[in-house]
Amino acid sequence: MVKKLDITQGLPDPSKVMDEIMAKYPTKIAKKRQKSLVVNDPAEGKEIQANVRTIPGIITQRGCTYAGCKGVVLGPTRDIINLVHGPIGCSFYAWLTRRNQTRPAEGEDNFITYSFSTDIQDSNIVFGGEAKLKDAVREAFEIFKPKAIGIFSTCPVGLIGDDVHSVSREMKEELGINIFGFSCEGYRGVSQSAGHHIANNGVFKNVIGNNNRDRIGKFQINLLGEYNIGGDAFELERLFDEAGITLLSTFSGNSTIESMEYAHTADLNLIMCHRSINYIAEMMEEKYGIPWVKVSFIGAEGSAKALRKVAEYFDDAELSAKVEEIIEREMTKVEVVREAVKAKTEGKLAMMFVGGSRAHHYQDLFSEIGVTTVSAGYEFAHRDDYEGRDVIPSIKIDADTRNIEDLTVEKDLELYREDLAVKKEKLLKNGYEFSNYDGMMPEMKKNSLVIDDINHWETEKLIEYYKPDIFCAGIKEKYVVQKSGVPLKQLHSYDYGGPYAGFEGAINFYLEMERMLCTRIWKMVTTPWKTDPEIVGSFAINE
Amino acid sequence: MLLNHTTSKIVERKALTVNPAKTCQPIGAMYAALGIHGCLPHSHGSQGCCSYHRSTLTRHYKEPVMAATSSFTEGSSVFGGQANLLQAITNIFTIYEPDIIAVHSTCLSETIGDDLGQIVSKAASDGKIPEGKHVIQAPTPSYVGSHVTGYANMLEGIVKYFAKKSDSLKNQLNILSGWVEPSDMRELKRILKLMKVKNVLLPDTSDVLDSPMNGKFEMYPKGGTTIPEMVSMGDSLHTLALGEWATEKAAINLDNQCKVKFSIQDLPIGIQATDRFIQSLAKLGSVSVPESINDERGRLIDVITDMHQYLYGKRVALWGDPDQLIPLAEFLVDMDMKPVYIVSGTPGKTFEKRMEKILSKSVPEAKYKNGANADMLLMHQWIKENPVDLLIGNTYGKYISRDEKIPFVRMGFPIIDRVGHSYFPTLGYMGGLRILEKILSVLMDQQDATCPEESFELVM
């Protein structure tokens, strides 16, 4: 058996393995990658290179802008038609492959199970695809009668000069429903991240604020950056519901277009996934005066903290009492499972390389069962997600990202919530934290290895070095890592399980870790006759 | 209802595709390239395509699927992707050390007009391709054809680059295996061995996409057609190309380039197509058919005669790729079933002719369509108009199956919610037996689950 890495004296300095990794790279590549691998020191606050272009041929985990825009942000909204303008692939691959669950009420629209495409052909590339796009919009309207249609551009659309925005305006006029376009061609930016930004801008311009409906609850909040993978949002809906907190809109798990239209009537925005949705939070505060706070409902402790944070904001005795009651009840259930699982998982090592948010959040869940995260990183997060929002002023926007629009937002004189601004000032004085995210690195151990945009070569070397008990990443990595004898937990799709958010989610995750970290089959990988003495002499049958 | 917006009212569509029965070219090229030994597929486009294609193949096989990408940015989309590809080639050979890089394109690089051949030549003349290593390429524009076209294009690219004619004719057949599973490639090899026909099978994803767990990740697994084998294809006696859509281009290329005559045949799915395959092998290889194959055939016929009552007259809806659908429809008809609705997103003129020949007499009510707007929405609407007893197709059919309570057999690509397709073949007589068993199981499970209690049968 391979000897486990000893971390009883703290994490060892991984500089040697970093050197080994770099040694294989061409000099120029080594120079670039060097800046994206950082030996963490929470006391010192180190800088990491992130959100820069991918090195060709390196075998990245990353996807594209279209995936970030259609696949991630708008895809989960169940009652609009997401029409993909392009050849068939982009629409096909984003068809039901992210597990944003939906639960429409009887008779409500749900288009999640459908894939809509203009399926453009070579003649459209030559002569343009706008006419086909218009026809497709008309046909979608005639057949499905949706409340709204979003049009998503793929790689060739920008190149051949199709204008999805003017087509949207024209069709909106003609059909009388909300129709809006996104210039989320796959080559824009350097990753899914640009797609998040483009989606945020589009939703903010075309959807949020379209419905000034009256209050329906005493405490109205939005949950931003929660996509209801495996039912995560359902678990949170359960908690808010019981506490008497009105969840107006979720961006965008199990959401409807209407809920997004009145999102601006909330009193507070909670951000789960900072990377994908912080733009909308910032813009809503500028325009409508709604403050935002970063929370994490991944992990039981984090969930309790997040609920208390909301209660503290509203400063209502009845709400606070209810929240404490829920926390106490739920934590009692959680503790029973946690203790039992921790006895078996304590001291194990984890690594995680996931998207733009979970690589941080899930460290809390792991530490609750005594598992240490030795190395972590994101595919496409920015420096603020690693180092905290304080570094934002010093982030340089490079040439690859410069063309992603930053909207100029102004105060809405009629709808701006002065009362909330006043409330925020008062709470700030009491030490309540708004508009902040400290990032992943300050919460990781000294000498943990932080890597941005990890590639296959680095993954292999790290597994060899750390011999982790569990590796968390996505479907492309899953079987690669498992073939080397290390179980991989998918933290994008949850391996078709979940939910993992909230208290119930924490329990599910502990049990899942017990299953994966203590399973028998990994011990059977080596054949018994490999270690047994070889049999000498033989006779053949039927030969 | 999962697909509650689908109604029987069919609105003529000319622009909108809903729930496609195809995907785009590059994933087929990636799959074909994985069937050659020591090869790393490379996607020349923005990186989203490569991630999607790797993910889909991984979900289908539950196996590692490696590929690299040029990772276009907006700059390269305007000025061309040559620099990206040249850099990628250097990085891949330095870091990942494949013997072969197989480059395919995407709608992005095709639209801006990158010429893969020219860029690869430049890489060679700039000394970026190490001694003894190879870079092959095939254009795979996503806005033409489908994933099957991409497979065909890469297969053509492979033989174009490797197959050489020398002075010595080799006593072997080229078998172009078509887009089938690793299990099917393995079955083809088994049959060829039983027939004692020396051959080169291209591509061959067995031992690549069904590799064992032994505690060590192999970036280039032991399977895949080797370079000497591919080179030798130019000296073969004949090329037997299985599946017109996937293999015709490569077969024609081998003929043009090396004067190896070819014949194109259906994939050996079911009785008659397998009969034709075995007869061709016997004729081309000048061998007689061994008793063991006669026995396999006899067993398949035996089970059909035994269970005919459960099959007779059953209405079936199929979707997928033409090369599979044609012999499958023929097999179903041979079992007295009725393939009434058939769609394929993959275009191609011979589809309708072939279907007409198979179906016009025995299933005159059949509706079939391929190419533009031949999607799963249309098929579902046909089903709503007049229901069927069985669905056969890829995983996406499970939504229709659940809504309409129709028994469902998974066949085709992708199957991302079950295992089996990569381990158990559907080709040959043994594959036919497996298809038959799957069909009977779901039909009988349905009967068991829904029949009145008094007619619940112990023996069936």
Q: Could you describe the 3D structure shown?
A:
The complex is a heterodimer of chains A (543) and B (460). Chain A is of the alpha/beta class and 543 residues long. Chain A has helices at residues 15-23, 27-34, 65-74, 88-93, 122-127, 130-144, 155-160, 164-175, 192-206, 232-243, 257-261, 274-288, 300-314, 317-345, 358-368, 383-387, 418-429, 456-466, 475-483, 502-517, 528-531; strands at 37-39, 81-85, 116-117, 148-153, 178-182, 220-226, 246-252, 268-271, 292-294, 349-353, 372-377, 449-451, 470-473, 488-490. Chain A has a domain at 65-207: Rossmann fold. Chain A has a 6-stranded mixed beta sheet, with helices on both faces. Chain A has a 4-stranded parallel beta sheet with strand order 3-2-4-5, sandwiched between helices. A 4-stranded parallel beta sheet of chain A has the order 7-6-8-9, sandwiched between helices. The radius of gyration of chain A is 25 Å and the shape is globular. Chain B has 3 domains: 25-158, Nitrogenase molybdenum iron protein domain (Rossmann fold, 3-Layer(aba) Sandwich), CATH 3.40.50.1980; 173-291, Rossmann fold; 292-454, 3-Layer(aba) Sandwich (Rossmann fold). Chain B has 17 helices and 14 strands. In chain B, helix 14 links the parallel strand 11 (338-344) and strand 12. In chain B, helix 1 packs across helix 7, helix 7 runs parallel beside helix 10 (244-258) and helix 11 packs antiparallel against helix 17. The radius of gyration of chain B is 23 Å and the shape is globular. The two termini of chain B are 32 Å apart. Chains A and B meet through helix 3, helix 4, strand 3, helix 5 and helix 6 of A and strand 1, helix 1, helix 2, strand 3 and helix 3 of B. Chain A: Its cofactor is [7Fe-Mo-9S-C-homocitryl] cluster; [8Fe-7S] cluster. Chain A: It comes from Labilibaculum euxinus. Chain A: GO terms for molecular function: ATP binding; iron-sulfur cluster binding; metal ion binding; nitrogenase activity.
